[in-house]
């Protein structure tokens, strides 16, 4: 059985932004991120995660984000299986109340 995926609330992510505790990865499609991303987030669309592993460090902590939390959960599951330290942001951008950049 796979290990449980750690979750983090949008409020916890917002509180941790100033401390740069996590690297945020937005797995939404290009047209979705054009509507705004969490400040400082990296955009790696879900389908490109497997080919982007060389851009990620196993000793860093990542928070994965999508629109509702489902795609980022799938990406979190995949990355965790590859040995990465990840958390899924519950509720995705639908629950994000913080600042966004365009």
Structure report:
This protein has helices at 10-16, 30-33, 70-81; strands spanning 6-8, 23-26, 37-38, 42-43, 61-65, 85-89, 100-101. It is α/β, with parallel strands linked by helices and 102 residues long. It has a five-stranded parallel beta sheet. It has a two-stranded antiparallel ribbon with strand order 3-7. The model has no long low-confidence stretch (mean pLDDT 95). InterPro entries: GlpE_sulfurtransferase, Rhodanese-like_dom, Rhodanese-like_dom_sf.
In summary, what is this structure?
Helices cover 23% and strands 23% of the residues.
Would you report the number of β strands? Answer: 7
CATH C-level class is Alpha Beta
Largest sheet: 5 strands, parallel
Q: How far from one another are the termini? A: 39 Å
Q: Please state how the strands of the largest beta sheet are arranged side by side.
A: 1-6-5-2-4
Unreliable residue stretches: none
Oligomer: single chain
Compute the gyration radius: what is it? 12 Å
Remind me, CATH topology?
Oxidized Rhodanese, domain 1
Order of helix and strand elements from N to C terminus: EHEHEEEHEE
- Please give the CATH architecture: 3-Layer(aba) Sandwich
Task: Enumerate how many helices there are, as a single number.
Answer: 3
SS content category: alpha/beta
What percentage of the residues does DSSP assign to strands (E)? 15-25%
